[in-house]
Amino acid sequence: MKILLSWSTGKDSAWAFHLLNQQYPRAVSALLTTINETVDRVAMHGVRRAIAEAQAASAGLPLWTIPLPHPCANDVYEARMKTAATRAVAEGFTHVAFGDLFLEDVRQYRERQLAGTGLTPLFPVWRLPTAELAARMISSGLRARITCVDTRALPAEFAGREFDRTLLDELPAGVDPCGENGEFHTCVYDGPMFRRALVLETGETVARDGFVWRDVACAGDSLSIR
Questions:
Q1: How many CB atoms lie within 10 A of CB 161?
Q2: 3-class SS string, the chain
Q3: Phi-psi bin for 184: left (phi > 0), alpha (psi -120 to 50), beta?
Q4: One-character DSSP codes across 64-79
Q5: Which of 14, 38, 108, 185 has the most CB atoms around its CB within 10 Å?
Q6: Smallest Cα–Cα separation from 10: which of 66, 51, 57, 61?
Q7: Could you give the angle at the alpha carbon of 114 between the alpha carbons of 109 and 54, nearest 5°?
Q8: What percent of the chain has pLDDT over 90?
Q9: Which of 42-51, 151-160, 213-222 has the lowest mean pLDDT?
Q10: Mean pLDDT of the 36-46 span
């Protein structure tokens, strides 16, 4: 069994990695992420490529990047993902894992796209109750920063905050504790899936089209965060 893990830089894909490591030790052999080639950042999360690379290094895995134009037509996205799937099969991968939690349409789309490729989809965190899951992530030592907020669901001030118990307590009613409906996105900097923590510095805030992004950057190799 050889697993390619879809990697968003956020908590759900990181936790999927943690669970896969427990169930299939050393089977996860690479991380796969899409990069907005216009700004050189991970799509939607807005996280710098350098952070994704630092996460992969801390996980002890290679990072596969798929450059995407912005905006990106769906046929372009699917063609580039198909190229990645072809490469994965050629390199002996048998499965692709995702950090999806409960969105049925997203899961069905992934399953359709992988049909006939020779790769089997895995969903290690699927249907885990998100309130319990969020609390478990935090108690396990997972540390993350919110990098993107949909202001239709959350105040802009949530961008840049720690994903911690205080945040969970302050989320408005109706907001999923893991942000699975797109309310917010995160960047993980520490946890049981990493060999060492990343040091993050919080930068500028950018608002566009109803979303707010809070920039984060790697500050060094220390085991503390500032």
A1: 19
A2: CCEEEECCCCHHHHHHHHHHHHHCCCCEEEEEEEEECCCCEECCCCCEHHHHHHHHHHHCCCEEEEEECCCCCHHHHHHHHHHHHHHHHHCCCCEEECCCCCCHHHHHHHHHHHCCCCCEEECCCCCCCHHHHHHHHHHHCCEEEEEEEECCCCCHHHCCCECCHHHHHHCCCCCCCCCCCCCEEEEEEECCCCCCCCEEEEEEEEEECCEEEEEEEEEECCCCCC
A3: beta
A4: EEEEE-SS--HHHHHH
A5: 14
A6: 51
A7: 90
A8: 94
A9: 213-222
A10: 91
Kindly list the structural domains of the chain, giving each domain's residue range(s) and its CATH number in brackets, ordered by start: 3-220 (3.40.50.620)
Question: Length of the chain, please?
Answer: 226
What are the φ/ψ torsions at residue 55 (nearest 5 degrees)?
-60, -45
Largest CA distance in the chain: 47
pLDDT at 108 over 60: yes
Name the DSSP class of 127: T
CB 65 within 8 A of CB 40: no
Q: Token match 């840049």: residue?
A: 160
Distance CA 39, CA 24 (A): 35
Q: Which residues contact 136 (CB under 8 A, 6 or more apart)?
A: none
Q: Is 148 helix (H, G, I), strand (E, B) or coil?
A: strand
pLDDT one-digit tens code per residue, 53-67? 999 999 999 999 999
Q: Taking CA 58 as the corner, what is the angle to CA 55 and CA 64, rounded to the nearest 5 degrees?
A: 50
